[in-house]
């Protein structure tokens, strides 16, 4: 069995988060969905568990980061082409997300970012390793 990753992300309003990520084309596993959490399917082995803040707090003694002021992580997702980068980020902005920085285009790598309604930073990128410059 392949190793799977489940990234746990606190959200203020679970229904709003589900609507937002549905607008970006993501699907959810109903088996792991209830009033406290949902399992967003990113790929066959990658999942984001969107947890209401009170439920998230049951897993840690630390305070939840105020993602409107601080960054706790950047979720970076690769896609198959530049057009897909634009589609996802454009849909994120239409669905209520924000774009915190300019598009980066290094020729061999193209990326754009968005913040979801809770302020979590997502980077969507396409990388053509065959065009990657040699490393020193």
UniProtKB/TrEMBL annotation:
Quote any Pfam family the record assigns: Ble-like_N
Q: Which domain of life is it from?
A: Bacteria
Q: Which residues cross the membrane?
A: none
Which ranges carry the VOC domain? Answer: 3-127
Q: PANTHER family given for it? A: BLR2408 PROTEIN, BLR2520 PROTEIN
What is this protein's record name?
A: VOC family protein
Give the species this sequence originates from.
Answer: Danxiaibacter flavus
């Amino acid at each position: 069995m392949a190793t799977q990753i489940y990234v746990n992300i606190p959200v203020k309003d679970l229904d709003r988060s589900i609507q937002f990520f549905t607008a970006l084309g993501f699907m959810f596993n109903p088996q792991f969905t209830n009033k406290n959490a949902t399992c967003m399917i990113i790929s066959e082995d990658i999942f984001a568990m969107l947890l209401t803040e009170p439920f998230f707090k049951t897993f840690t003694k630390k305070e939840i980061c105020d993602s409107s002021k601080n960054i706790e992580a950047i979720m970076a997702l690769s896609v198959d082409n530049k057009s897909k980068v634009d589609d996802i980020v454009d849909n994120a902005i239409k669905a209520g997300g924000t774009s915190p920085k300019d598009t980066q285009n290094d020729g061999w790598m193209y990326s754009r970012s968005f913040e979801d309604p809770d302020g979590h930073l997502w980077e969507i990128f396409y990388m053509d390793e065959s065009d990657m410059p040699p490393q020193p």
